[in-house]
């Protein structure tokens, strides 16, 4: 009879585990999880462009040695380098500081994530702007189609 009781108990335990696991699959994600995903999706979309920023920066640094450039062009090169470096720095700062608060109410987490969405969107916009400016400048300086 003890063996039968153990078998029944184990069956209930297994059923509870299966119910918990399947409930998460059918249920819609919480608003907090959805917002966190949105924030991370923005980050994930722009993060791969860090390599592009470095490549463009290196090309622009080489242009600083170009004797054919006038002072206005050199100023534009320096400005484009500064924009790329700022975008790079903003991304690293954001990643370093991103940390969802634990042990607080969902309301506080939502406020945090809304703020982080604004911040990472700003990082994305500045990075894309700097990449566009640098690419356009390099094309004007005769680098053809720059990636």
What does this structure look like?
The protein has helices at residues 2-26, 31-46, 50-63, 71-97, 106-140. It has one domain (31-140). The chain is elongated and about 60 Å long. The protein is mainly alpha-helical. It is built from five helices and no strands. The model is unreliable at 1-26 (pLDDT under 50). The longest helix has 35 residues, at 106-140. The chain is 80% helix and 0% strand.
Defining key terms:
147 residues, mainly alpha, 5 helices, elongated
What is the structural class?
Answer: mainly alpha
Total DSSP helices: 5
How much helicity do the residues have? over 70%
Overall pLDDT level: 84
Q: Which band does the percent of strand residues land in?
A: under 5%
Number of structurally distinct domains: 1
Radius of gyration, CA atoms, in whole angstroms: 25 Å
Overall form: elongated
- Spell the H/E element sequence: HHHHH
Name the poorly predicted regions.
1-26
Summarize the main sheet. none
Count every beta strand, where a strand is a DSSP E run of 2 or more residues.
0
What is the first-to-last residue Cα distance?
Answer: 74 Å
């Amino acid at each position: 009879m003890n063996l039968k009781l153990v078998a029944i108990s184990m069956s209930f335990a297994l059923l509870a585990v299966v119910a918990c696991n399947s409930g998460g699959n059918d249920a819609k994600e919480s608003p907090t999880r959805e917002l966190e995903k949105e924030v991370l999706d923005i980050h994930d979309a722009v993060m791969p462009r860090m390599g592009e920023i470095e490549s463009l920066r290196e090309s622009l640094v080489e242009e600083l040695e170009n004797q054919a450039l006038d002072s206005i062009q050199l100023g534009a090169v320096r400005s484009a380098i500064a924009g790329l470096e700022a975008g790079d720095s903003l991304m690293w700062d954001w990643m370093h500081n991103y940390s969802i608060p634990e042990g607080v109410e969902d309301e506080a987490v939502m406020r945090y994530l809304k703020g982080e969405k604004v911040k990472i969107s700003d990082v994305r916009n500045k990075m894309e702007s700097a990449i566009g400016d640098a690419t356009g400048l390099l094309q004007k300086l005769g680098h053809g189609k720059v990636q």
